[in-house]
Specification:
The complex is a heterodimer of chains A (507) and B (479).
Chain A lengths: L5 H16 L4 H25 L8 E9 L2 E7 L1 H24 L4 H20 L3 H10 L1 H11 L4 H30 L4 H5 L5 H18 L8 H8 L2 H26 L1 H6 L1 H20 L4 H22 L2 H32 L10 H4 L1 H15 L5 H16 L1 H26 L6 H4 L6 H19 L2 H18 L21 H4 L1
Antiparallel strand pairs in A: 1-2
Helix pairs in contact in A: 1-2, 1-4, 2-3, 2-4, 3-4, 3-11, 3-15, 3-21, 3-22, 4-5, 4-6, 5-7, 6-7, 7-9, 7-10, 9-11, 10-14, 11-14, 11-15, 13-14, 13-19, 14-15, 14-18, 14-19, 15-17, 15-18, 15-21, 15-22, 17-19, 17-21, 18-19, 18-21
Chain B lengths: L9 H20 L4 H17 L9 E3 L4 E3 L1 H21 L12 H18 L3 H19 L6 H32 L4 H9 L5 H18 L7 H8 L2 H8 L1 H17 L4 H22 L6 H22 L1 H27 L18 H4 L1 H15 L7 H13 L3 H27 L12 H14 L7 H13 L3
Antiparallel strand pairs in B: 1-2
Helix pairs in contact in B: 1-2, 1-4, 2-3, 2-4, 3-4, 3-10, 3-11, 3-14, 3-20, 4-5, 4-11, 5-6, 6-8, 6-9, 8-11, 8-12, 9-10, 9-13, 10-14, 11-13, 11-14, 12-13, 12-18, 13-14, 13-17, 13-18, 14-16, 14-17, 14-19, 14-20, 16-18, 16-19, 17-18
The chains are: A mainly alpha (507), B mainly alpha (479).
C-alpha cells in the first residue's frame, strides 16, 4: 500500500474539478467534469485492486484530529469499497447523460454534480460519526439545487419536499449521535461498532437512526418524496438519486443500525418485515398503474429497496449479502432504466407511456438494451438482479417464511409491471408518427448504457467478484448479530449441521 | 506608563476616552472629518481588541468586585469589538449618498461598544445597568440615524419606548434583588440564594431582571420590537444590532445566571427553556410570510438566540462554553448576511430590501448569490457548512445535561426554520432573473464578505479545536 491519501484524493478531485467548472465555458465545464469523474473512477479501480479482502477490516485509513472528540478520519471496508466503486462508476455516466440534455447554466450544474460526488464518497468513507453526518447531510444541498434549477415543471415543490423530508429524518439521527458520543466517549465509527449500548437505549437509538435511513432508503410509508423528486429531477439527477443516494440509507443500516444496536434491531425485526412486506406489495401495485415512466421506475425502486430491508433484517449471511448485491444491482439497473427514459425523453420530451409504442422497430439498439435492464430489474437469472433478490429471499425465508411469501410476490408483481412497461413502449405498433421518427441510440448513448449492461451481466454471471470484498465484513457483523438473529420456522440445512452456511456451500 | 489599577480595564478606558476625543474631533471638523473619524474609530476598536491580550483577560474581579476582567469577558469583547468595527466599515458608502452622514455614527458605535464591554464584564447589578444603558442609549440614536426617513425615525422611537419599558422592568427587578439580599454584587446575590429556598421577592426580582435582559437579546416573548426596528433602522445599524449587542446581552445573561443566580438554577432554567423554545419556534414560523429581507433576518436572529439559550439552559461550564461558541459563529454569519444586504442596490444605486428583488441573483451576480447562499445554509445549520457545528455544540451540551427532550424540540425547530432559509436560496437560484443589482465598489466590504464566507464554509471546521478550547477556557473562568 502506498502512502498517498487515496481516500482524501477521491474526495478532493471532484471538489477541485467542481471549483474549476465555475470559471470556464459550458463546453469546458463538461470536459472538466468528465475528466474529473473519470479520474475518480480510476482511483476507485485502484482501490479495488489494492484492497485486500483478507486483510484488516479497515484499510487506507487516514486520521487527523480536529479538536474535541472529533477527527477527520477516513477508512473503508469492503462494504464501503463496493459502494464507492458503484458511485465512481455511475458519475461519469451521469455527466455523459447531461452532455446534451442540460443546456442552461452548465458550469454550475457540473459543479453541483461534482460537489455531490465528493459528499457521497465522503459519507461512504467517513470513520467519524459527525464527519459522516456532515457528508450525509451535505449531499442534500447540491441535490436540492439540481432538482430545483434543472427540474421539470413542479421542480420547486419537489425540491422542497426532498430537502425537508430528508432533513427531518436526519436531525433525529443527529440527536442519537450526540447521545452515543456522550455515552461511549468516542465518535470513531469502528469503535462504536464494537461498543455495547445499554439495551433500553438501543431501542431509541435504533428508532432515531431508522427515522433517517427509512426516509433516505426510502421505506414505505415515508417514501412519498421519492416519486416527486424523481419525476422532476433531470435524468442524471434521477440516476444519481436512485443509483447512489438511496444506497446511503441501506449503507446506514449496515454500518450503524445493525452492528451498533443489535438488540435494538432485533426488537424491530417483525416491524421491519411488515413495513417491507407492505412496501413490496403496495408500491408494486402502485407502479402497475403509473402512466409516467419515471414514476413507475421510482415506485419500483421503493419495492426493490424493500428487498434490502428484508435481507438485512433477516440477519443471516444470505440475507445481508443479498441485500448488498440488491443495492449494487439496483444502483446499476435503476440508473440504467432512468437513462433509458432519458433517451426517449430527450427525443420526444414526454414521459407518458402512451405516447410511445413499437420502438423496437425504429430503435432496435435501444430496445435491446432496455430489454436487458428490464430483465435485470425483474430478476432474470444471469443478470445482477437475480443474484441479489434470490439471496435476499433465501435469507428472509430462513428468518421468516411469511416474510418470504410476501417478498416473493414482489418478484411476480415486478415482472408484471416491468414487462408491461416494456411491452407498451417497445412492442406493438408504431402508433405515433413522432415516436416512429425517433432515431436509434447515438454513439454517446451507447457509451452510457453498454458499460452498465456489461456490469449487470458480470454481476449476474460471476457475483463472486463483488462478494469477495464484502464477505469478511459481513462475517464480522454476523458475529455481532449472532446472539439476536431470528430463528425462523423454516430450517434450511445443507449437509449436516445447522450453523451458518458460507457462500461456498451455496455455489 | 499605565497606572496599574487601570490595566485590567484598558479596553474600556481606550473606548471611553478615545470616543470622547473622536466626538470632539467630529464636532470641530464637521462633515469633512467624517472619513477620518470613521477610520480612527475602526482603529480604536481594533486597538481595544488587541489590548485584551494581557491583564484584561486574567486579573479577575476589580474595583471592589464591580467588574471582572476575565477570559469570559475578553472572549465576548474579542467578538464584539471587531463586529462593531465592521458595522462602521459597513456604513462606508451607505450614508455618503444621503446628506445625513456625519462622524457621529462611528462615535456612537464606539460608545455602544464601551457599554457592551461593561455589560459582559459586569459583576454587580449597577455595572450591569450602567453598561446596558450606555449601549441602549447609543442604540436608540443609531436606530433613528436617518432622521429624515420616516421608517428610521419610527424605528428609533419604537426602540426607545419599548427599551425604556424594558429598562424599567430590569430596574424594578434589580431593586427587588437588592432589597431582599442587601447587596448589588453577583456573588452576594448568589450567597443569598444559596441560603435556602428563595423568597417570593427574590424570585420576582430574578424574573424581572431576566425579562429585561431577554428584551435586549430579543428573545420571545420580548421580541416584538425586533422586526420593526431591524426593518426601519439603516442597514449598517441593523447589522450592528443583530451582532454585537446581541452577544453582549446573551453573555451578560449567561454570567448573571451562572455567577449571580447559580444556586437558583432550577428557578431560572425553566424560564430560559421556555424563552429558548419559544424563540426558536416563533422565529422559524413567523419568518415564513416575510417579504422584506431585513425582517426575515430579524426573525432569523430571534430564532438563533433561542439556540444559544438552549446552551444556557444546559448549564454548567459546558453549557456556557457552547453559548460562547454559538455566539461567535453566529456573529460571523449574521454580519456576512447583512453585508450582503447592504449590497442590494437597484440600478440607480438605491437600496432595496424586498426578497423578490433577489430573483435569479445566481445568474446576474453569481459570486454574491453564492456568498448569500452560504450564509443562509449556514444560518439554517445545514452541514457541511460551519453553521451546523455551533448548533451541534449546544445540543450536545443539552444532551450531556440530560435535556434530551429540549434538544429534540430545538432540532425540530431547525427543520421548520430551514424552510425560509431555503426560500431565499430558491429565489436566488431557481427563479427567473429580476432587474440586476447595481455594482457596489467597496473592496473592503467585499473582502469582509469573502472572509465571513470562508469562515462559515467547511474550512471553518479547522477551527473546532482552537475555538473549542478557547470557549472552554473562557467558560471555565466563570466557575
Amino acid at each position: 500500500m502506498t502512502g498517498l491519501p487515496w481516500l482524501s484524493l477521491l474526495i478532493l478531485v471532484p471538489l477541485v474539478a467542481g471549483g474549476l467548472c465555475l470559471f470556464v465555458s459550458a463546453t469546458g465545464a463538461r470536459w472538466i467534469a468528465l475528466v474529473g469523474t473519470l479520474i475518480d473512477f480510476a482511483i476507485s479501480i485502484y482501490l479495488w485492486t489494492a484492497y485486500d479482502p483478507n486483510g484488516a477490516q479497515w484499510q487506507f485509513v487516514e486520521k487527523y484530529p480536529l479538536g474535541g472528540q472529533v477527527s477527520y478520519a477516513l477508512g473503508i471496508d469492503g462494504i464501503a469499497l463496493v459502494l464507492i466503486a458503484l458511485t465512481a462508476f455511475l458519475m461519469p455516466i451521469c455527466i455523459g447523460a447531461s452532455w446534451r440534455a442540460i443546456e442552461k447554466r452548465v458550469p454550475e450544474y457540473m459543479a453541483y454534480f461534482l460537489l455531490m460526488e465528493a459528499l457521497i464518497l465522503g459519507a461512504f468513507e467517513a470513520q467519524d460519526l459527525f464527519l459522516f453526518y456532515i457528508f450525509f447531510e451535505g449531499g442534500l444541498i447540491p441535490m436540492y439545487l439540481i432538482i430545483g434549477i434543472w427540474g421539470g415543471v413542479e421542480r420547486i415543490k419537489a425540491s422542497y419536499k426532498f430537502f425537508l423530508y430528508t432533513l427531518f429524518g436526519s436531525v433525529l439521527m443527529l440527536i442519537a449521535m450526540l447521545y452515543m458520543a456522550g455515552t461511549a466517549h468516542t465518535t470513531s465509527i469502528p469503535a462504536l461498532m464494537a461498543f455495547d449500548f445499554p439495551k433500553q437505549a438501543q431501542t431509541f437509538l435504533f428508532l432515531a437512526f431508522l427515522a433517517s435511513f427509512a426516509v433516505k432508503l426510502p421505506m414505505w410509508p415515508v417514501h412519498t418524496w421519492l416519486p416527486d423528486a424523481h419525476v422532476q429531477a433531470p435524468t442524471a439527477g434521477s440516476v444519481i438519486l436512485a443509483g447512489v443516494l438511496l444506497k446511503l440509507g441501506g449503507y446506514g443500516f449496515i454500518r450503524f443500525s445493525l452492528p451498533m444496536f443489535p438488540d435494538g434491531s432485533a426488537q424491530f425485526i417483525p416491524f421491519m418485515f411488515v413495513l417491507s412486506g407492505v412496501a413490496v406489495v403496495y408500491t408494486s401495485l402502485v407502479a402497475l398503474v403509473q402512466r409516467d415512466m419515471k414514476k413507475l421506475i421510482a415506485y419500483s425502486s421503493v419495492a426493490h429497496m424493500a428487498f434490502v430491508t428484508f435481507g438485512l433484517f433477516a440477519m443471516n449471511r444470505q440475507g445481508i449479502e443479498g441485500a448488498m448485491i440488491v443495492m449494487l444491482s439496483h444502483g446499476l439497473v435503476s440508473g440504467a432504466l432512468f437513462l433509458c427514459v432519458g433517451v426517449v425523453y430527450d427525443r420526444l420530451h414526454t414521459r407518458e407511456i402512451d405516447r410511445y409504442g413499437g420502438l423496437s422497430d425504429n430503435m432496435p439498439g435501444y430496445a435491446l438494451l432496455f430489454m436487458i435492464f428490464t430483465m435485470a430489474s425483474v430478476g432474470l437469472p444471469g443478470t445482477s438482479g437475480f443474484v441479489g433478490e434470490f439471496l435476499s429471499l433465501v435469507g428472509t425465508y430462513r428468518a421468516s417464511s411469511w416474510g418470504a411469501i410476501f417478498a416473493t410476490t414482489g418478484i411476480i408483481l415486478g415482472a408484471a409491471y416491468m414487462l408491461w412497461l416494456y411491452w407498451r413502449i417497445c412492442f406493438g405498433t408504431l402508433r405515433h408518427a413522432d415516436a416512429a421518427a425517433m432515431p436509434d441510440l447515438s454513439v454517446r448513448e451507447w457509451w452510457l448504457l453498454a458499460p452498465i449492461a456489461a456490469a449487470v451481466f458480470w454481476m449476474g454471471i460471476y457475483p463472486e467478484s463483488f462478494m469477495r470484498p464484502i464477505r469478511n465484513d459481513i462475517g464480522r457483523m454476523l458475529v455481532r448479530l449472532d446472539r439476536v438473529a431470528p430463528v425462523g420456522d423454516s430450517h434450511l440445512t445443507l449437509g449436516k449441521g445447522t450453523g451458518h452456511m458460507d457462500m461456498g456451500a451455496m455455489h | 506608563m499605565i497606572p496599574r489599577f487601570t490595566a485590567p480595564l484598558l479596553p474600556e478606558l481606550m473606548l471611553s476616552i478615545g470616543g470622547t476625543i473622536l466626538m470632539l474631533l467630529a464636532a470641530f471638523t464637521g462633515r469633512r472629518g467624517a472619513a477620518l473619524v470613521n477610520w480612527l474609530a475602526v482603529l480604536l476598536l481594533l486597538g481595544a481588541t488587541v489590548a485584551l491580550i494581557g491583564p484584561p483577560s486574567h486579573v479577575g474581579p476589580v474595583f471592589d468586585g464591580m467588574v471582572s476582567a476575565d477570559l469570559f469577558a475578553s472572549f465576548g469583547k474579542a467578538i464584539m469589538f471587531p463586529a462593531a468595527a465592521v458595522a462602521i466599515i459597513a456604513a462606508h458608502g451607505w450614508f455618503e449618498r444621503g446628506t445625513e452622514h456625519s462622524a457621529e455614527y462611528a462615535v456612537l458605535i464606539v460608545f455602544a461598544a464601551a457599554g457592551m464591554s461593561v455589560m459582559v464584564s459586569a459583576m454587580s447589578l449597577v455595572a450591569l445597568y450602567v453598561g446596558l444603558e450606555l449601549n441602549s442609549l447609543a442604540g436608540y440614536v443609531l436606530a433613528a440615524y436617518r432622521r429624515s426617513d420616516e421608517r428610521s425615525a419610527e424605528a428609533g422611537l419604537k426602540y426607545f419606548v419599548l427599551g425604556a419599558l424594558a429598562s424599567g422592568i430590569l430596574l424594578y427587578g434589580i431593586s427587588l434583588l437588592y432589597g431582599f439580599t442587601g447587596t448589588m454584587s453577583f456573588t452576594g446575590i448568589a450567597a443569598a440564594f444559596a441560603r435556602g429556598a428563595p423568597s417570593l421577592g427574590l424570585l420576582f426580582g430574578l424574573v424581572f431582571v431576566l425579562a429585561g435582559l431577554a428584551f435586549k437579546a430579543s428573545a420571545v416573548p420580548f421580541h416584538m420590537w425586533t422586526p420593526d426596528v431591524y426593518e426601519g433602522a439603516p442597514t449598517p445599524v441593523t447589522a450592528f444590532f443583530a451582532s454585537a449587542p446581541k452577544v453582549a446581552a446573551v453573555l451578560l445573561a449567561t454570567r448573571l445566571c451562572v455567577e449571580g443566580l447559580g444556586p437558583a438554577t432550577d428557578a431560572w432554567r425553566q424560564i430560559v427553556i421556555f424563552a429558548a423554545l419559544a424563540s426558536i419556534f416563533l422565529g422559524a414560523i413567523a419568518a415564513y410570510g416575510q417579504t422584506n429581507i431585513k425582517r426575515l433576518l430579524a426573525y432569523s436572529s430571534i430564532n438563533n438566540v433561542g439556540f444559544a439559550m438552549i446552551g444556557l439552559a444546559a448549564g454548567g461550564a459546558r453549557g456556557a462554553s457552547s453559548v460562547l461558541f454559538y455566539m461567535a459563529v453566529y456573529v460571523v454569519m449574521t454580519l456576512g448576511a447583512f453585508l450582503c444586504v447592504l449590497w442590494m442596490r437597484d440600478a440607480e444605486g438605491q437600496p432595496v430590501e424586498s426578497i423578490a428583488s433577489m430573483s435569479g441573483l445566481a445568474q446576474t451576480r453569481p459570486g454574491f448569490a453564492a456568498a448569500f447562499a452560504i450564509f443562509m445554509f449556514s444560518l439554517a445549520g445545514i452541514p457541511p457548512l460551519f453553521g451546523f457545528w455551533p448548533k451541534l455544540v449546544v445540543f450536545n451540551a443539552a444532551i450531556a445535561s440530560g435535556y434530551v427532550a429540549l434538544a429534540v424540540a430545538g432540532i425540530l425547530g431547525t427543520v421548520i426554520g430551514a424552510y425560509y432559509y431555503l426560500k431565499i436560496v430558491k429565489v436566488m437560484y431557481m427563479d427567473e432573473p429580476a432587474a440586476p443589482y447595481a455594482r457596489v465598489r467597496e473592496p473592503i466590504q467585499g473582502l469582509l464578505i469573502l472572509l465571513a464566507a470562508v469562515l462559515v464554509s467547511p474550512l471553518g471546521y479547522l477551527l473546532i479545536g482552537p475555538l473549542g478550547s478557547l470557549t472552554d477556557k473562557a467558560a471555565g473562568s466563570l466557575f
